[in-house]
Design a protein that fits this description.
Blueprint: H1 8-20, H2 38-52, H3 61-73, H4 78-85, H5 90-97
């Protein structure tokens, strides 16, 4: 487990979600009020939302790939990307998670 810095826009969105679900402790929760199993959260909440938006989503790990690629495209230094992804070396962030865009060739 590690702490991740969130930008102000993300914090605002989290606060908005909290206000919409004020009667609940967790945004993704089971019927018993405990945190939802990650697989169940993906199946019940995330995949239906992605489908509605026309996004193909394989699983939670897709978010890591997208984040790495988008940070690289934004010019973020590979060491910073590696730290955000929780790697102690730069190579996994670039070699495994980063995806080249055909338009960049």
């Amino acid at each position: 487990m590690r702490q991740v810095t969130l930008d102000a826009t993300m914090v605002e969105r989290i606060h908005l979600l909290h206000s919409q679900f004020a009667s609940r402790e967790w945004i993704f929760q089971s019927g018993a009020g405990t945190p939802a199993n990650p697989g169940n959260a993906l199946k019940r909440y995330v995949r239906p939302a992605a489908t509605e938006l026309g996004i193909t989503l394989g699983g939670w790990h897709d978010f890591r790939h997208s984040l790495s690629t988008n940070l690289r495209r934004a010019g973020v230094h590979p060491k910073v990307v590696s730290d955000i992804l929780g790697h102690n070396k730069v190579n996994p962030a670039v070699d495994v998670y980063d995806r080249a865009d055909i338009a960049e060739r």
